[in-house]
Amino acid sequence: MLTILKSEWFKLRKSNIIGILLVGPLIGLGAGIGADIAEAAGMMNEWYMLLIYMNLPYAVLFLPLVTGVLASLVCRYEHQAGGWKQLLALPVTRGKVFAAKYVLILLLVLFIQLFYLAAIVGAGLYKGVADPFPAAIIWKSILGGWVAAFPLVAMQLWMSVWFKSFAAPFAVNVVFTLPSILAMNSEKVGPYYPWAQPFAMMYPATENGDIFFIPWEQLMTVIGGFFLLFYLGGYFYFQRKAV
Amino acid sequence: MEYIVKTENLSKHFGQEKAVSGLEMKIPKGEIYGFLGPNGAGKTTTIRMLLGLMKPTSGRIEIFQNDLKQERLNILRRVGSLVESPSYYPHLTAKENLEALRKIVGVPKQRIDEVLEIVRLTAAGDKKVKGFSLGMKQRLGIAASLLNNPELLILDEPTNGLDPSGIIEIRNLIKSLPSECGMTVLISSHLLSEIDQMATTVGIVTKGKMIFQDSIEAMRMFAQQSVLLKVSESDKAWRTLLGRGMKAGLDNGIISLPEQSDENVAETVRGLVADGFSVYRVEEERRSLEDIFLQMTREEQAG
Ligand SMILES: Nc1ncnc2c1ncn2[C@@H]1O[C@H](COP(=O)(O)OP(=O)(O)OP(=O)(O)O)[C@@H](O)[C@H]1O
Ligand SMILES: [Mg+2]
């Protein structure tokens, strides 16, 4: 498993991914720098305000979309010229190949989240935010966004293994991501819609006793449940795929 | 006999189409097995099943005397393969392509240079594969198949896209593998001449069915040779021979004698000369394997 992961990283490393890792945090940075956080002065910690502004484009749109792009990337070079048959004729199980690709995307998403953390700090420094840095809350937001991406990554990996083209999985992703703007505002649908979870889990709330910003049950059922559903869907599809 | 590959009643159906049906392949150790068949015969489909890339509709596969279903990983560790068009990662160089595979098969790094040397690709080792010619990609594919020092090498149309000197190189390489590395080789092709020059055992498949499987010598025996005689007054000469109770054919003024020993031919000629016929030519008709192959596949289609 570790050897497959190393091989996957080796293949991906050579395909200019650094740009893709930086796009989101840069968008966030832009939103942060352009944000009008002065209105919050005195009412709440300005860092919260900054985070909320930055989260809007980042957590609602960018984070869900980038999971799809990364999933397509780690499958693209296998689709291009018979990579699947060469890889799967090696002494590897399909389950491990699938898991390795999945873990690789998760690690990349974690990197993106860390870059995003840097973007938050950068935007705050640029703005001269004087309030104390709420480290615990911000870390919760960063890691929460990462966890919220688990089911989305699984879904996108499934689609990317399935479709040879770059466009098809991306279209699927857009179709599911855009409604989250609506779902987010709905008390009823919002908590159950997987693509709305990154925003929910990155939205800073005051201490609620839970580990993340959404209730524990929602984390387990919605994120855990959809993760299982999508991961197993992709896994079983890949097991049976003829290459 | 110890079989490295043995299939029992192996079948693969795509909907109604029976791409492979009831295949009983037997590859003895140390042989170069030529897997021969026209386009669409089911060679690649069979090879895919041997590598576990595709599940058989029915039947069983044993490799190294282990069941493929149960021992897939242990079997594949000892197998090298090249299936259909060469596989590669276009954005990587030749060396990086091999490195990506090496990380998984876990052989020492220097093996990469060795296999590149074997297929004479050392000079292009640091070039991106997307710029490679078809023949270079094919060589890279062969290099990749040799990476893990396999005991069984499965090559699907390996000389596809190679230039004549490349074909000879690869042919010599393949021929040397059983004796030098103790490998058993399965090589598929739709070209009989190619198999004829490399294989020690032949399996001929058409429309998913094995119609012949034996040593290459046995296949050549199939090419019943006959002796052709060109004589004066061929009609009369032919009847004379028949009168002596010999089996002879007459075609376009040429007399043909089925498989004859040297003495029999000499005797026949002496007899004809004594009877006053002039013997202009005595030659052996050697049916090419091509003819046999065509005949076999035609018979199969007719029957
Ligand atoms: N994935 C698939 N789905 C449907 N039919 C298939 C599939 N793969 C192969 N076939 C069919 O199975 C038959 C055998 O194909 P196969 O590729 O095994 O032939 P082959 O002997 O390798 O031919 P060639 O010499 O052209 O490489 C063909 O009729 C082909 O159309
Ligand atoms: Mg083929």
TrEMBL record, chain A:
Query: Where would you find the membrane-spanning parts of this chain?
Result: 58-77, 98-125, 137-159, 166-184, 219-238
The record's Pfam families line, in alphabetical order, gives:
ABC2_membrane_4
What are the entry keywords? Membrane, Transmembrane, Transmembrane helix
Q: Which CDD domains match?
A: ABC-2_lan_permease-like (cd21809)
Task: Kindly provide the name given to this protein in its UniProt entry.
Answer: MrsE
Which organism does this sequence originate in? Cytobacillus firmus DS1
Taxonomy of the source species: Bacteria, Bacillati, Bacillota, Bacilli, Bacillales
TrEMBL record, chain B:
Which residues are in the ABC transporter domain? 5-232
By its UniProt entry, which CDD domains does this protein fall under? ABC_BcrA_bacitracin_resist
Indicate yes or no for the key word DNA-binding: no
What Gene3D superfamilies does this protein map onto?
A: P-loop containing nucleotide triphosphate hydrolases
Instruction: Keyword check for Ion transport, yes or no.
Output: no
Question: A GO molecular function for this record?
Answer: ATP binding
Record family assignment: Belongs to the ABC transporter superfamily.
Query: What is the protein's name according to its record?
Result: ABC transporter ATP-binding protein
Lineage here is:
Bacteria, Bacillati, Bacillota, Bacilli, Bacillales
